[in-house]
Design a protein that fits this description.
- Pfam families: Recombinase (PF07508), Resolvase (PF00239), Zn_ribbon_recom (PF13408).
- GO terms for molecular function: DNA binding; DNA strand exchange activity.
- It comes from Anaerobutyricum hallii.
- This is Recombinase family protein.
- The strands form 5 sheets. Strands 1-3-2-4-5-6 form a 6-stranded mixed beta sheet, with helices on both faces. Strands 11-15-16 form a 3-stranded mixed beta sheet. Strands 12-13-14 form a 3-stranded antiparallel beta sheet.
- The protein is elongated.
- The chain has 14 helices and 16 strands.
- It is α/β, with parallel strands linked by helices.
- Strand 7 and strand 8 form a beta hairpin.
- It folds into 3 domains: 143 residues, 3-Layer(aba) Sandwich (Rossmann fold); 95 residues, Alpha-Beta Complex (Hect, E3 ligase catalytic domain fold); 141 residues, no CATH class.
């Protein structure tokens, strides 16, 4: 955005840069609107008899970084030798970052012999006092950098001890309430609960990551170990009660931790059997195990009949028989491959329509953002125009609603595509099975089969949700 005013040339043809910034919520910054800042800066120029000046207006940009179009233009023109001084109404209009402020003062302004003036703070680097202040600021900035880690660690410890969130990015399923310094469950909280429940039912972290469109099984593993979800906070080795609302019941959380230990032990050494961990007794509900017999034959039988592990016994009088492992595996694999061949991949019928709607919303967003930039320019010239201000507010509100809709569409389409991709992957299992290694076959079985129940010579296969929807 540019709004340039040219007056009489000075002797060296260099101009004064009047920098103006308003945040994204500029209408709430009383006294610092574009119009108010422009008026103060032009009065300063009139008082100082400065005729050659240029306005650099960044409307709707945060001061937390220097990624602003007019700030970039100002820096570029300073480096080209076109600017002799920069004036702002208040120091935080230049930047809210101490690091960026020091960078501008030392590496941009001072390095190019450009003076800097902030009216509110009476800060002027063209004077000996102002130059000394830049040096003092640099010393304090260095001191701050050296001590920030220590202060941060102390601050985090104290916050956590009182049950408040540390102020960093909140865990998945929570938002951060900056006013109360606590975590608040958001729309993803139900997903977190579902992940704990499904893991307890036997789903792997890999399957859950794909099901809920997460960043791999590591994210799921991290979630399952977070005490934050039961209302606790952890810092280093210390765990304290948090002020936030729990998402997961403690009983479920503890059960999941025990399961994770069991599964970790189970996967620490690779099983030599295809269905390990998936087979259960259909009569008493106990787990079933593989056992080698003499002559190399391998059988499957109920843990209730294995008195060496009493904690796994459900019914010591279980009448389930011993079955040949090769026969059970053949039944299971044949059924899975048959289902794979017959499986119909149902594409999202509304996918094209959703895509058109998504494109239309993005086009509308671009139009609104263009209008907003134009209105900022108009408002800079006419700060008393209440109609302009009202229109800007309405567009901001529409943009906010539009961004929410775009986010929802993106999430829905991503999940739909993931389900379709998983379905297509299952469809290809029948064709690729004979080319898979044992580990790949074992992983495939766990991906699509939830549980196998054996009742004497009857095998019941429970597939994961993806395969039970049709």
């Amino acid at each position: 955005m540019r709004n340039i005013r040219i007056g009489k040339n000075t002797s060296n043809n260099k101009k004064t840069g009047l920098y103006i910034r308003v945040s994204t919520n500029f209408q709430f910054e009383e006294g610092y609107s574009v119009g108010a800042q422009t008026e103060k800066l032009e009065k300063y120029c009139n008082y100082q008899e400065i005729d050659n000046y240029d306005l650099y207006i960044d409307g709707g940009y945060s001061g937390s970084n220097l990624n602003r179009p007019e700030m970039k233009r100002l820096i570029k023109e300073i480096q080209e030798g076109k600017v002799e001084s920069v004036v702002v109404v208040k120091l935080d209009r230049l930047s809210r970052s101490q690091k960026d402020t020091i960078y501008l003062l030392e590496d941009v302004f001072e390095a190019n012999d450009v003076g800097f003036i902030s009216l509110n703070e009476n800060f002027d680097t063209t004077t000996p006092y102002g130059k000394a202040m830049v040096g003092i600021l640099s010393v304090f900035a260095q001191y701050e950098r050296e001590n920030i880690r220590e202060r941060t660690q102390m601050g985090i410890t104290e916050r956590i001890k009182t049950g408040k969130w540390r102020g960093t990015k909140p865990p998945f399923g929570y938002d951060y309430n900056n006013g109360d310094d606590v975590l608040v469950p958001n729309k993803d909280a139900e997903t977190v609960r579902k992940i704990f429940e499904l893991y307890k039912e036997g789903y792997s972290t890999y399957a859950l990551a794909k099901m809920f469109d997460l960043k791999g099984d590591k994210q799921v593993s991290d979630m399952l170990s977070r005490v934050t979800y039961i209302g606790k906070l952890k810092y280093n080795k210390e765990i304290v009660d948090g002020l936030h609302e729990p998402i997961v019941d403690k009983k479920l959380f503890d059960e999941v931790q025990e399961l994770r230990k069991t599964r970790t032990r189970a996967t620490s050494h690779k099983s030599q059997y295809l269905l390990t961990g998936l087979i259960y007794c259909g009569l008493c509900g106990a787990k079933m195990r593989y056992q080698k017999w003499s002559g190399g034959r391998v059988m499957i039988y109920c843990y209730s009949l294995d008195h060496s592990k009493p904690h796994l016994v459900k019914n010591p009088n279980c009448q389930n028989g011993k079955l040949d492992a090769a026969e059970v595996e053949e039944v299971v694999v044949s059924d899975m491959l048959k289902l794979s061949k017959e499986y119909e991949v149902i594409e999202e019928k509304s996918e094209q329509q959703n895509q058109k709607g998504f494109e239309a919303m993005n086009q509308r967003k671009s139009v609104l953002e263009g209008k907003l930039k134009s209105l900022y320019n108009l408002y800079a010239s006419d700060t008393n125009n209440s109609v302009l201000l009202e229109t800007i507010g309405e567009i901001n509100k529409e943009l906010e609603n539009l961004n929410t809709q775009i986010e929802q569409y993106t999430l829905k389409n991503t999940r739909a595509k993931d389900m379709t991709a998983r379905a297509k992957a299952f469809k290809s299992v029948a064709d690729s099975w004979e080319f898979m290694s044992f580990n790949e076959r074992q992983k495939t079985v766990r991906e699509y089969i939830k549980k196998i129940k054996i009742s004497n010579d009857y095998v019941e296969i429970e597939y994961n949700d993806l395969l039970t929807l049709q």
